[in-house]
Amino acid sequence: MIDPQLQSQLLLAFAGALMGALFGGFARWGGSHADRRLRLTLDLYSEFHSPKFNHIRILAHEALERAGKMPRAYEASAGEPREAIASVVHFWEKTALLASEGALDMRLLKRFLGQYAKWWRPLLCEGEAKSDPEWGRTLTDISWLFDRIERGEGRR
Question: What is the pLDDT of the chain when averaged over all its residues?
Answer without folding.
Answer: 86
